[in-house]
Structure formats: structure tokens, C-alpha cells
Design brief:
single chain; mainly beta; Porin; eight-stranded antiparallel barrel
Length: 221
Amino acid sequence: MRKLSLAIALAAATVAVPAFAQDMSAPAPTDNSAQPGEAAAPDGSKAFGIEPYFGIMGGWEQFDNERGHGIPQALNADGSTRRSYKPSGSLVQGVLGVNIPLGPVFVGAEGNVIKGIEGNIDWEYGAAGRFGFRAGDSGLIYGKVGYQWVNFDKFSALSTNGGNTNRDYSAITYGIGAEVGPQSIGLKGITGNAGFRIRAEVNTFGDAQSFRPMLGIITHF
């Protein structure tokens, strides 16, 4: 089920990305325009720079709860399924990172800390590299790959191989996303030094063992 949900989300994002790129393709640089003789991105903004940022995001995550895949089934001592166990719920996330624009593309790295608000997800933290395309000077379309640690609360799953309690899991994480910034109202873009963007992204954990859509605000400086 989680793999099907992820596939649908990835397909939807793939359809949406060209439209997003088209909307952002019109040149809109303000004081970020490249000077005569200076390297420029396709929209006329500066080609290179360093952009540190931080942000707050909110969303939801669902982990698999199947034998032999994802988080093990939550079992009571007698082997019956623990009905109160919820490997899903709403989340709040903080991110801190840096982007490096390279002409029409960019690379970057970021760390994250996540707190579960409901369900049995307690804390998550991790780091990831990002890479993708610039859409004008204030938009980004990207993929990301990293490593994530997940901690479940005291009601976390009992493993199916001997009944040992396991609250901590870790695996590779990957996802896709997009950011758009309202440069049209005077805020600077990715090669500027102030402003904010709206970010939407979808991530998964391990072998498509979770589904995590997130939406939030990124502030760069």
C-alpha cells in the first residue's frame, strides 16, 4: 500500500514539475541580475553563490506495519496484534542547510529534526544532500538522498523474532520536492541574501517503507 501511495505521489510530482518550471521561466531578477561580463544563469540572475537557510515544515508520515517489511508488527506478549499501536501521525520538522547555485542547477546539503505530534512516532533526525534545477532565481526543483534515524515511543513495536522491544530504526531516505519564492514582491532569490520560499516535498524511508509529505516555509539569509 505504501509503495502504491509513493508511486502515485511521484507520478503527480513528475506531472506538476514541468508546469512549475514553465511558470517560473520568465526572467524576474531584481538586484540579483548578473553584471556585464559576469557569469549568468539562463534567467539573467547571478550564476553562482552560497545560500544558507533554515525552515519549519509540517506534515504527516505513515510507516509500513507488516511482517518482514518496514517497522515490524506491534504484538502483545501473547502474540496478538496490538491494536493501539500507530506507526503514523502528524509531524513538525525543522531544517537547516545550505544551497550552492551553479548556473542553471544547484547542489546543497541539509540536516533535519522531526517531532511526532500524534501516533507512536516520537523523534526523527537525519541529513541529506540535495541536487536539482533552478527555476528562475527564486525557485528550485530537486531530488534528495540521505540517512534518517527514527525513534518510536514506549509503545513501539515488539519484533516478531523473539519479542524483543525495538524503538529505533535507521535507513537511507530519499525524496523529491520543489520550492517557490515570491521574488515579484521584492524578496531576493537564491543568489540574494534575504527572503523566503514555500517548500513542498515527499520523502520515503528505506525500501519505500514510509510515506511522508511535508509543506513549509524556508527562510534564507
